[in-house]
Design goal:
The chain has 91 residues and is mainly α. The chain has one domain (2-90). 90% of the residues lie in helices and 0% in strands. It has helices at 2-31, 34-43, 49-90. Helix 1 (2-31) crosses helix 3 and helix 2 (34-43) packs across helix 3. It is elongated and about 65 Å long. The two termini are 22 Å apart.
Length: 91
């Protein structure tokens, strides 16, 4: 039974990560302008179109993944804290 709970919790956290990652990627895509992308790439000395696109995609994915991981960990901490409170109240 403990293995089933662990599997369901893992699937839930994975689902939260995927949803938050997708939303954050779309938010980044909507707020970053073409000018900002070019300036960011030129800071690293990248001036060709393919290099700019690669840098932008890689950066957006890394930022989205880190933020999604943070949100997922906060959800996990919140759930554990709530469960601990419920268990203490039942005693």
């Amino acid at each position: 039974m403990k293995l089933v709970k662990l599997l369901l919790a893992t699937m839930g956290y994975l689902l939260v990560f995927i949803v938050v990652f997708t939303v954050l990627t779309q938010v980044i895509d909507n707020f970053i302008t073409d000018d900002a992308i070019r300036n960011f790439a030129s800071f690293f000395g990248i001036h060709d179109a393919e290099g700019i696109l690669d840098l932008y995609q890689n950066t957006a994915m890394v930022v989205s993944a880190l933020l999604a991981l943070g949100v997922t960990l906060l959800c996990r901490l919140h759930i554990r804290r709530k469960l601990r409170t419920i268990e203490q109240g039942a005693e």
